[in-house]
Amino acid sequence: MTIRVLLADDQTLVREAFAMLVESARDMEVVGQAATGRQAVRLARSERADLVVMDIRMPDLDGIEATRLIAADEDLAGVRVLVLTTYDTDENIVDALRAGASGFLVKDTRPAELLDAIRTVAAGESLLSPGPTARLIERFLRSPSAPETGGPECLSGREREVLALVARGLNNTEIAEALGLSPLTAKTHVSRIMGKLAARDRAQLVIVAYESGLVTPGSV
Length: 220
Description:
By secondary structure, this protein is of the alpha/beta class. The protein has 2 domains: 3-128, Rossmann fold (3-Layer(aba) Sandwich); 141-211, Arc Repressor Mutant, subunit A. The protein is built from 10 helices and 6 strands. The chain is globular. The mean pLDDT is 83. Keywords: DNA-binding, Phosphoprotein, Transcription, Transcription regulation.
């Protein structure tokens, strides 16, 4: 199955570089390029992209608002958004996750890691770049409108272990290896945790883990 990727970045050279990288993968194709957030929303609708690689700072409509429009559009329910940002200078990552982004990576990510991230997010999982996660969540918890979810009190001991590893940025395979489980069992645990906590995706699971004190900033 070919992943249909839309690239949104206001810098032409960046878009072209990403396009060459994506097209080099046999399981992906670039179906459009957008220089503004408004173009990204329009092309997501017209080209039926599976995933949008979204920059934050763009003219006309920024990546956060574009993400919010895509996430709120029922006709685009299957479209996932992966934010790429220069994290140290961009203070809007929290808003992007709240708007509906399925994950984020910093722009100095290695090419192979970006392709893997696209595959992960397109497959329906969420992805957080492990390095800045603690700083991200620490700032998020100081914001007034964090998402309302359940607490981890309803989880079993094993589920709490899985939640803690999700908060540290591990994917299902890595969680399985860490706990001596099969990947399918790890995936099942994550799905059950999301259901119990009424969380939309793994990004919200990370928020719950930090908000409850199960994981603390600086421990990642």
